[in-house]
């Protein structure tokens, strides 16, 4: 009976994650973990979750069409403001995006001819060169391996109710809830945006993106495209070092969610096996 209760309690936990250069962040209902490997140790920080969890009637309202999109982007904003790493990354991406558009505009005006036409095309649809840079960074740097490790660790927990290096090793690096799957809809909206000369669209496009994801994201076609992107563009097979960071990070987060430990300013230092 006790084992059944524990199993039911474990089933309610839903974890999100985010790979970054040098480490992994996980997000639980009540806490978040941040882990990285340096100086021959694995450092894991546990912080209380800064994300508002709607309850009661607010939980139901947050699932209504359109309003659920408002809640989603509000949570994303809180996540950006609550993590220095994420905020710095976001600002960096915005700066790079602006520079790319400016350079493409300048190049198209200066060069002219076929090359200028190509640059002008990319200036109109800046999402295309930006995605190329994004996919290259994800696939050919350690971020892609950490991204794969993040998925493997979460999948191991979802299957076994616990996270071990051995269990995570056998998991797929693809995950149906991967946030990068929303890129499908970001690209689709970005392609039509240059043709929409309507000021409110600057905000409404985010609603369209997220609503399309909510409605179509679990269809076979969407999952198939998302899995293709994960396999070939946004994840790489992690090594034991990246996987160990993910496992230790998620295990510390599980301990916090189970009440076995609390948040702390000082990180837990773990001696890696690999």
From TrEMBL:
Question: Keyword annotations for this protein?
Answer: Membrane, Transmembrane, Transmembrane helix
Q: Which Pfam families match?
A: DUF1385 (PF07136)
Query: Which parts pass through the membrane?
Result: 76-101, 113-137, 178-196
**Is Iron among this UniProt entry's keywords?**
no
The record's PANTHER family line, in alphabetical order, gives: MEMBRANE PROTEIN-RELATED (PTHR42867:SF1)
The name this protein carries in UniProt is DUF1385 domain-containing protein
Q: Which organism is it from?
A: uncultured Rubrobacteraceae bacterium
